[in-house]
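The material for today's practical consists of a large collection of protein records. Read left to right, the backbone structure tokens trace the chain's path through space. An example says more than a description, so a record of this kind follows:
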Amino acid sequence: MCIRDRCCDSNGVEKVDVPKPSLIVIGSGAREHALLRAASQSRLSPRLHCFGTSNNPGMMAICEQSRGCYQTGAIDDPAAVLAFAMRFQDEQPMVLVGPEAPLEAGVVDTLEEARFGVVGPKRRLAMLETSKHYTRELMHKHMIPGRCRFKHFTSMEGVSEFMDELGLEYVVKDDGLCGGKGVKVSGDHLKDKEAGLEECERILRKGLAGEGSSSLVIEEKLVGQEFSIMSFCDGEHLAHMPAVQDHKRAYDGDEGPNTGGMGSYTDASGILPWLTPADVKAARDINEKVAKALLEEEGAGYKGVLYGQFMATKHGVNVIEYNARFGDPEALNLMALLDSDLITICQGICQGTLTQDLVSFKPVASVCKYKVPDGYPEHPVKGEPIDVTNINFPQLLYLASVDKDGEILRECGSRTAAVVGLGESIGEAEAAAEAEVQRITGPLFHRKDIGASASLKARESQMSSLRGVHVSILAKGDDPQNVAALVNQVEQNGGTVRAVIYENNVMTVPEQGDRHQCYQLPAPHQDQASLEASVCSVLEDHCLSLIHISEPTRLLSISYAVFCLKKKKHHKECTYEYIKHTS
């Protein structure tokens, strides 16, 4: 039955009953724990249900408190999920899908056919995550920025040659789902070409044995810092979330094998310390272009969470890959920071009425740290008892791969439990998270360096070194080939072209389009002063540190720009001063 609240007006006269909203969460890990807890804080007092794979006591308690139901079963079986949802049909519940496996299995398609509102994309749209070559081809077909060179292989034919073409700077990816562990990088996981070829053969053999996808993708290796931008999407409109950085490697110092994610952090500004506002804007723009491309390609809107994984490089922002749901652990940070109503957001997604003003986050920093079993990820211990009862802030504890065995809580061999620390700075949040995660006991370990000062400084130093001298080109009616020549000249002299700024409506140079961002000044400029003001504004907004002009009579000369490159002078203040004093 649908639970209803009786409401009265200001005179005490009873009004028509108002139905409570109802939400079903699919999945029972820490991500789903965080989503369920955020939903429980809704001002609408929803009834909450969960269909998961194990008995997560934290989620079971939330369901019980809302007079909801918790049940375990096969979450990637559309029929089983539908049967669970139909028990609450009278409540007209929304369904929020947590993990990726149900998306690939077509659970959303089955639920939508039964007229349930679902926060999660249909199977075809979820190929954005479940097929890496689909995403790369979509981006190339629709000329979406952030692309990289890649090839899709179903056999070993041509693999060796493409590795050589990339200068042995490549990444090997299993084309299908691998729980975040299907990526191997040359010079890192793969010490030489022979190891790269062996990895490709392993993926293809596994596919032939029916144990995975039967194809792989090889991409150019991107150098920089990874970050994620997740966006709620109702099929047409997007509402963006703060930038997050995950840590895939198992051990401190980014050492060891890849995992599902050992922890993550956000900054109070919503922008990570080593990112620029332009980086975040570029990533959000890419998410919007991808959503639009999916609508055009598939004839249906993407509903759910669009999760872009990006790399900030010396040339700007590139796409690493896409996921079709909330990230884990990133969702733990974001749900701890969410300052708006998750139920209202889900309603906006299901009804196609999502707006950015429905989504807001607390202006504080967060650090998430996972405790995982000894031996994880390759040879984890399983079934061992753990203790979380000494935690000081249980509202920021999230249980993951656990099962309740009577009064004993046991780890199940994967990421076990996570905590989130909050603070005015990342350092303060890290200290809080570290103190809490040490209170979780058992045969478990965690990374101590996530969000730590030394780790942040190393990332900032790497990005500062990579970005080097930042150059933008102001093109005023220039022939695109002249602009291309200038880009090459700058790069040959050791600079990095971060942007081309067009004073007039000049088309970007096609072959340069993946290497820099393009901006157009807002209007024609009648005098030098108005032009300088617009240029300075672009420099400030996009953190560009030197402007290289394609027309020598305007502002800076080419020879001066090249001189600055050779001397590595790249202070914005010097640039502005030179602009202001050039006739």
